Amino acid sequence: MTLFNAKGARLHSEEGFSFKKFFQNKGNIFLLIEAIFFIWFVFSFLIYPNLNLFMDVLFSGSLKDNITKIIESERAMKAIKNSFILAITMCVTVNVVGTLVVFITEYFKIKGSKILRLGYMSTMIYGGMILVSGFKFLYGEVGMVTRFLRTMMPDLATNWFEGFGAVLFIMTFACTTNHVVFLRNALHQIDYQTIEAAKNMGAGTGRILFKVVFPTLAPSYLSITILTFIKGLCAMAAPLIVGGEEFQTINPIVITFVKMEYTRSLGSVLSIFLGLVTFALLMIMNYMERRGHYMSISKVKTRIVKQPIKNPVLNVLMHVLAYALFIIYVSPLAMIVLFSFTNTKSINTGTLSWDAFTLDNYKMVFGNPDNYGPMLTSVILGAVSVTAVIVLILFACRIITKYKKSKLAQTLEFSLLIPWLLPAILISVGLLQTYNVEQWTVGGAILGGTVVILLLGYIVNKIPYTLRMTKAAFYSIDNSLEDAAKNLGAGGMYTFTRVLLPIIVPTILALWALEFNGTLGEYDISVLLSPTKINTLGVTIKTLTTDNYDPNSTAVSFVYAVVMMIIASIVVYFVYGRKGVTNYARKSKRMAKHIEKMQRLQAGK
Amino acid sequence: MKLKKIIALLLAIVTVFCMTACSGNDNEPEGPQAPIDISNLTEEEIAKYKSQPLVVYTNSGSGGRADWWTKKAKEAGFTNITIVNGGASAMSEKIKAERKNPQADVMCGLNAMGWADLKNEGLLLQYVPTWAPLVDEGMNDPDGYFHAITKEAILLVYDKNTWTADQAPKDWLDLWQDGNTQYHGTFQCWSALTGGTTQVNLTGILHRYKSDASDAKYGVSPEGWEQIKKLYKYGVSASGDVISAIAATDGSQKDVHCGQWYSSGIKSYSETYEVELDYVVPEVGVPYAITGCGIIKGTKNPITAALFLEWYGSTEFQTTWAKAWDTAPANSEAWEAGASEDAKRYTALPQQQIDWAWAQQHMGEWVEYITLQFMK
After folding, report:
1. Residue A579 main-chain phi, psi, to 5 deg
2. Cβ <8 Å between A549 and B10
3. Contact B97 A432 (CB under 8 A)
4. Most confident of the ranges A221-230, A328-337, A361-370, A557-566
């Protein structure tokens, strides 16, 4: 068989091969350049830097000893079990809540859905420790909800919000971001005419949802479920803070071990084990993705019309649920903002009093112009690295989805997922060790101490997630659309930029925003790879807030959290504001219509 | 078909290339560096050397300290100084990863174990500053690779409202003895062992059970591990720092009344959290944590680095530093002139004698063993 036997390469085995013919085709030359680039990139930055480290780390202690150590530790085994329990239950709860919030704002007619959507989007702008603190201010031992409940039920234990339930609750509401972003995009791609048709045939709301809507959304659900599973498996902040003695998970142990040289091999064994589980899941998912025949988006879309809930009781219930969810989403965020205006004592003990309110924290952050520099630096670094990783992945995804059956394309896909095997710290150490000396892979240059290595660190760590979400978006493209454009004489590049790209732009923009927000306060990669003259926001925050001597450092970290939420909100606004996604969606629809018209004209001839 | 072959060939070439390149990289380029001598420099030469580029890595630049001492260093003539801030473990990780092409000239901060680690890895350059004899005995490296800058005591502090001095425990070990039920569930047990203060305190406890006997595990006798087991049996695992846990104890079921704290943070934290604290001095003494400074092997400007060390640890600068940031300098003259009354009181407490090289050698094993077997 030919290697690239799909339509684009026009390389047919029966014609025989000639270099002349091969290079006459612009598409082939472009493909060859792409192939060489990716082989170089994957090898230089994903495989080579990790190779030495990997060998060192994995085989420095005996692999058997390390595995025995883990198996003999009751605590580690329990933590692994807990991680899996959390990951599996989260796949259910996050999908339920995520589906609810998306359908409340996008599918059903619910009053105030615009405000509701803003609330549900709140997890796009904050996460990690800060988010968990927000929940703790409410449900923790001295939290407001706990106090209120105890006035009614004096017997309620103050630590009722602890253990598996609490972790699951926080993780569920923290991890619906993928639904709010990607499921929503996918829902908007559905052709409303199919729903109309089902209705005309007499199908009820439930039947339409389960027979028409959900099956169409299957690729998105697949991707989101995998990502949710990974998030559950690697949960860190929530189990640490509210897990209690009964529900600790494995990732905090992995991170402790990876940070110390002696235990690094043990930490890596655990990390690779978790990574391999993830890989196995991805394999299953890829298989399902390739096998499945999904209803793709239509060429001529009719915008989805919001469905009223006819049953009045259900309607009221749905409204109550919608606003209850809204409160659950928004209140932790409100707590963070509120407590950022209080002193450290209030923050750490979760108590509020009038004289605790102060502007000092804000004065400290904004009063010193030295603190602005790192903000700007991180905004620029974030923008550059996220843009780079998305462009890179767009090209990679095009190869991966187009040459689905090529072994080389499959290898490319799995190589790009390597960063999922190792924690960010290890990847950064590998890059630094490798590229701090002259290195032949980059033409003898020394990348250490330059901004390039820092950007590479960011890029490499973002690759797997970007690839996963972009690939899901590619699967939603109707193949016939590409064929139509080709038949009309459009070149490969033209088809890509003018027909395909506009369709996935909403996803790309959303990804951009999410990844950008994730980079803003990044510490682990930044501290290791930053050149001496560059100060990033994450490192600045860490040095300001892990100050052993100044008790007010906790308060300052809350101000920074608010600052980052503001920057993140601005980014989200640009993506979801008037000129963002909707505009592109309209453009892509217009293009699709245009193609359809041309096709009809041609057929008429 | 042919395209596949072309790519396969490319891959093969790349792999072969890699094999040869990899093997070539393993030899460390650094040779022995000549000893630094600055005694014969003229004023002019000193000024010239001071203005050379100098990169200082530190983990003691937090809370505005880095800005402050950058300014002071520039005033002292180090016009081309760059200070890179980060956490202690990140900075030493960075130094190790940059081993073949060091970016830093000087490291300031860390603790005794962190320094012992860098010394063992062969990452430091010997240089004994003129102020070295002023530092308390046992705090400097006897081989001259690193020297102490500040010191502080790691103490067992307790809430005065809970216990009087008579009722309070007399030593860490009192907290978890089976008979002492009054202390059970009143103290915080470590939920992570990566912090510097925690490691110093852990060493303070295990050092009493240091043993080479055949039944010892990781340098510690079985009796020592029994203590750790009980610590976790009777301790409370509450997240957050001890002082805020004590302050939050009102209304909480996880009553925390005592725990580890570092001497320089006692005053500021008890004021912020409005708690009254007292401390315990065990018979063996209290473990001390030091910060230090040293020159990174492979520095391109060893003389500038040495001049910086001379200035950084000098009585004059350490006195100013102690006054500005309330530290206890290891330099005894600066301690006398600059340390506050409180700082002096805490750092005059009897010092527990600890073999830090032994602690550094075993710390990884301890963290692994405790994390996997005892922690809850």
Report:
1. -90, 0
2. no
3. yes
4. A328-337
SS3 A276: helix
Which residues, numbered 156 to 215 in chain B, qualify as contacts with chain A under a Cβ-Cβ cut-off of 8 Å? 191-194, 197
CA distance A529 to B84: 12
Do A9 and A113 fall within a single domain? no
pLDDT tens-digit readout, A426-478: 889 889 988 988 888 888 888 888 899 999 999 999 999 999 888 877 776 76
Kindly provide the ipTM of the predicted complex, given to two decimals.
0.83
Do A457 and A277 meet the contact criterion of CB atoms below 8 Å apart?
no
Q: Say if residues A250 and A235 touch (Cβ distance below 8 Å).
A: no
Tokens representing B200 are: 């110093």
Answer left, alpha or beta for residue A489, where phi above 0 means left and psi between -120 and 50 means alpha. Answer: left
| Secondary structure (3-state) at B252 | coil
Residue that terminates a domain, selected from A311, A339, A367: A339
A585 near B CB under 8 A:
no
Indicate if A19 and A113 belong to the same structural domain. no
A268 touches chain B (CB under 8 A): no
Cα-Cα-Cα-Cα dihedral sign, residues B343, B344, B345, B350: positive
Task: Give a yes or no: residue A388 inside a domain.
Answer: no
Q: Percentage of chain A surpassing pLDDT 70? A: 86
Is the residue at A318 inside a domain?
yes
Phi and psi, residue A15, nearest 5°: -80, -15
Q: Minimal Cα distance from B265: which residue of A?
A: A549
Question: Would you call A76 an interface residue with chain B, using a CB distance cutoff of 8 Å?
Answer: yes
Query: Does one domain contain both A172 and A317?
Result: yes
Computed over every residue of chain A, the mean pLDDT equals 84
DSSP symbol at A430 = H
Which residues of B, range 270-299, sit inside 8 Å of A by Cβ? Answer: 272-274
Query: Which of the four CATH numbers 3.40.50.300, 3.30.590.10, 3.30.450.20, 3.40.190.10 does domain B152-287+356-373 have?
Result: 3.40.190.10
Establish, for the pair of chains A and B, how many residue pairs have beta carbons separated by less than 8 Å: 197
The CA distance from A550 to the nearest CA of chain B, in Å, is: 7
Residue B180 and residue B299 in contact, taking contact as beta carbons nearer than 8 Å: no
* CB A485 within 8 Å of CB A567: no
Instruction: Report the Cα A480 to chain-centroid distance in Å.
Output: 29
CA A179 to chain centre: 10
Q: What is the least distance, in Å, from the CA of A93 to any CA of chain B? A: 27
Alpha helices for A243-371 (secondary structure H):
250-259, 264-291, 312-339, 344-349, 360-366
| Cα A525 from Cα A519, distance rounded (Å) | 10
Q: Which of B363, B318, B339, B367 has its CA nearest to residue B132?
A: B318
pLDDT in tens, B277-334: 999 999 999 999 999 999 999 999 999 999 999 999 999 999 999 999 888 999 999 9
Q: What kind of fold does domain B48-151+289-346 have according to CATH? A: D-Maltodextrin-Binding Protein; domain 2 (3.40.190)
Rounded to 10 deg, the angle between the A63-72 and B356-373 helix axes is 60
Q: Is B239 on the interface with A (CB under 8 A)?
A: yes
**Sequence ranges of chain B with CATH classification 3.40.190.10:** 48-151+289-346, 152-287+356-373
Domain membership of residue A8 (yes or no) is yes
Domain, as residue range, for A209 = 87-248+303-339
Q: How many CA atoms lie within 13 A of B360 on its CB side?
A: 15
Flag whether A224 is in a domain: yes
Query: Of the candidates A36, A72, A259, which has its C-beta nearest B89's C-beta?
Result: A259
Q: Which residues does chain B have within 8 Å of residue A437's beta carbon, measured at their own beta carbons?
A: 25, 100-101
d(Cα B204, Cα B227) in Å, to the nearest integer?
A: 12
Residue B23's pLDDT band, with cuts at 50, 70 and 90, is very low
Determine the distance in angstroms separating the CA of B42 from the nearest CA of chain A, rounded to an integer: 30
